[in-house]
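Hey team,

Sharing the histidine kinase run so nobody has to redo it. Sequence (238 residues) first:
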Amino acid sequence: MSSDPTRPPETTIAGDGEERIKRFLATASHDLQSPLRHIAMYAELLLDDLEATLDGEQLQSLRMIMEKAQTAQRLTKALMSLAGGTPQVTPEEVDLQALAENIWGELTDETAAGEATLESDGLPSIRTDPALFGLVLRHLLTNALIYRGEAPPHVAIAAQREGTDWFIRISDNGTGIDPVYRERIFEPFWKLPRPGTVQGAGLGLTTAREFLTALGGDISLEHSDESGSRFIIRLPIA
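Structure output:
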């Protein structure tokens, strides 16, 4: 088969895509730092000034605002360092079960997917960066809720230790992905060519793979057909 002389080499396309995503991450993360810092600061000031006058639910909501803003600050700093080629990773012991349940609860509220179910009992604690790995989970679970089939969304998460690695499998009952796109789904700014595709930047799986690379792991599409998809994440144990 003859090559198309008008099409640049694949390496050039990939390289351009990587540079574009790095510029995007650096710019977005830098611009978010100031508002996030102010949100966290004002939440802390309100806690100091009003703690004695607020009831338990109000205090919990205000603490949640401050914690989420601080988490977002850590994440944007990590994104900036990732874009600069020197990722800052802060590993700690992470309760994978609690992390998955927290993210799932937030996403089902955001997407009004109250009928969606999560199967994830007995997930282990792992040592990783909670902000970066949490965003990886968020991307995968968001896709499972958005690219849904006719049945209510169902996601299963399972983890297995093999040698010096954790293998975490995330399965859904969504619309599936054509095997021909097994690697293209990880390309920056690329989206599945299907009718009614949800609008977005096309960076979710790309950034998930970048974060996992920074964590010493990787991700791939292990299986997909009309019954759903299964992604597999590899993370080093230490």
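The first strand starts at residue 92 and ends at 95.

Ping me if you want the raw files.
A.
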